[in-house]
Design a protein that fits this description.
It is a single chain. This protein has about 525 residues and is α/β, with parallel strands linked by helices. The chain has 3 domains: about 170 residues, N6 adenine-specific DNA methyltransferase, N-terminal domain (Ferritin); about 290 residues, Rossmann fold (3-Layer(aba) Sandwich); about 40 residues. About 45% of the residues lie in helices and about 10% in strands. The strands form 2 sheets. It has a 9-stranded mixed beta sheet. The chain has a two-stranded antiparallel sheet with strand order 9-10. Helix 13 links the parallel strand 4 and strand 5. Helix 10 packs parallel to helix 15. It is globular and about 95 Å long. The chain starts with a helix and ends in a 5-residue tail after the last helix.
């Protein structure tokens, strides 16, 4: 993973130099489209031995196209004609027609692979795109060794590069970029806390570029040693971001049903019930509408105009199967707001025992906003089973605001240790102490960090869900200095600083008087 990060940084620095004066939002599609093209071309090249075995040495003749496409479908690989393959395009990288060559390649790929129809960028021939720099970018991306080989790591390398570039572009674009990308540490904590299992269904109604799904597959692969065993459903309202999601998932070999449209007004999965909802909907959206005819979604109260937070929460709850769970990122205000119907809806969610855990996050985790954020964990059924204890009428509160490390002047990130601290606390709280599962301990309240509260406690706090209301204060260690001595030292320090300030004021007045200015 360290080697991957070094490769990603090197590639990003080189690619960013080629951006010249192009806006990051525009350049993003140039780069990510080429990375995707490189991926599907390399994956197709890996199929050659299978083609030769199934069809023969002359597999590339047009007469075998149907057979080759069938093999590609069975192997979950995209079919790529010769004029769309990376080797052919890289050989033409220095030609002035390279832009049109790439557009033609993208067209051919979409024509032969219906699932990619309308997804790939096809504007490389435009005059404003410097063709010399485009050729240099092709050579740069071509330098990545992506052959997956026997261990399959090549495909992962390209997946890592694609994800890393998504994050870097989100940072470069600022507010606009953050709309399609959730920082990886936020995605990871959601997935680690929900811990999706194989053969289950996962949904994200504001799926952005698909990072939640990528991390869910990765979680299962790491913990279950297998891949592609969850059913994925997502919806995204932004057409450009929708295309990024399709590419991001395809580049990882992840099958998913992703639909384009406004989820709150035009739900493309109206009857869907899932085991997990993992989502980061846009914060505090004021310009939104709901489909009021879908009354089953607003059973806890009609969300107010001017803020979509409680519309999203209720939509996600409506998608949960009888034992489904959800992890949702929202602005901190959602935990305490009393505006319009929000307070009453929150009360109904609590009284119906749907809230499982609340987490206050550190500031500066997001690219697109400085608004403090929190995590809502919702559970359709908290009665427990052979692995989980009965948590009825209990809510876990976690205050993680002091965690995280600055990775740049404006960006903070949760470390693996931070993520483990939060997710282990949640799992320890949920687990039955009688299961004897390795790695899990009996839960304990920790002053300054976590507290298991009852619904009665929440009622006493007027249904406000801010963790700081419930978690005990952390004791501050005494320094052993008597109060009188400490005050004497502080007073002396303050007196010296005030005298220094007076001296500076006098020096300023003297210098001003020398140039004829009297104060």
């Amino acid at each position: 993973m360290t080697d991957n990060l070094a490769l990603e940084k090197t590639l990003w620095q080189a690619a960013d130099k080629l951006r010249n004066n192009m806006d990051a939002a525009e350049y993003k599609h140039v780069v990510l489209g080429l990375i995707f093209l490189k991926y599907i071309s390399d994956a197709f090249d890996e199929m050659v031995p299978i083609f030769e075995e199934e069809v023969g040495a002359n597999w590339e003749t047009i007469s075998y196209k149907n057979e080759l496409q069938d093999i590609c479908v069975s192997e979950k690989v995209f079919y790529v004609v010769q004029q769309s393959r990376w080797k052919w395009l890289q050989g033409r990288a220095k030609l002035p027609t390279i832009g049109k060559d790439i557009d033609d390649a993208m067209d051919a790929i979409e024509k032969d692979n219906p699932t990619l129809k309308g997804v790939l960028p096809k504007d490389y021939a435009r005059p404003a795109l410097d063709k010399q720099r485009l050729g240099e970018l092709i050579d740069l991306i071509g330098s990545i060794t992506l052959s997956k080989g026997k261990d399959g790591k090549g495909k992962d390398i390209l997946g890592w590069v694609f994800e890393y570039f998504l994050g870097q572009f989100a940072d470069a674009e600022g507010k606009r970029g953050g709309q399609f990308y959730t920082p990886q540490s936020i995605v990871k904590i959601l997935v680690d806390m929900l811990a999706p299992e194989p053969e289950k269904r996962v949904y994200d109604g504001a799926c952005g570029s698909g990072g939640m799904f990528v991390q869910s597959e990765r979680f299962i692969e790491i913990h279950e040693h297998r891949k592609g065993k969850i059913s994925i459903f997502g919806q995204e309202s932004n057409p450009t971001t929708y295309k990024l999601a399709k590419m991001n998932l395809a580049i990882r070999g992840i099958d998913a049903k992703i639909e384009l449209g406004d989820t709150l007004m035009n739900d493309k999965f109206p009857e869907l019930k899932v085991d997990y909802v993992i989502a980061n909907p846009p914060f505090n959206v004021s310009d939104y509408n709901i489909n009021k005819a879908e009354t089953h979604k607003w059973k806890y109260g009609v969300p107010p105009t001017g803020n979509a937070n409680y519309a999203w929460l209720q939509l996600f709850i409506s998608k949960l199967a009888p034992y489904g769970t959800a992890g949702v990122v929202l602005a901190n205000g959602s935990m305490s707001s009393e505006i319009a119907t929000e307070g009453q809806i929150r009360k109904e969610l609590i009284e119906n025992d749907l809230v499982d855990c609340m987490v206050s996050l550190p500031s500066q985790l997001f690219y697109n906003t400085q608004i403090p954020a929190c995590l809502w964990f919702l559970a359709r059924n908290k009665e427990g089973n052979n692995k989980l204890r009965n948590r009825n009428n209990e809510i876990l509160f976690i205050d993680a605001r002091e965690l995280g490390t600055m990775i740049s002047r404006k960006q903070k990130e949760l470390s693996e240790k931070d993520i483990a601290k939060i997710s282990d606390t949640y799992h320890n709280w949920r687990k039955s102490s009688e299961t004897g599962l390795a790695g899990f301990k009996d839960y304990q309240n920790v002053p300054g960090f976590c507290k298991s509260a009852t619904i009665e406690d929440v009622r006493k706090n007027n249904y406000i869900l801010t963790p700081g209301r419930y978690i005990d204060f952390k004791e501050v260690a005494e320094d052993g200095i008597a109060f009188d001595d400490k005050m004497q030292t502080l007073s002396a320090t303050l007196s010296a600083q005030m005298q220094k300030a007076n001296d500076l004021d006098e020096a300023i007045k003297l210098n001003l008087s020398k140039i004829g200015i009297e104060i």
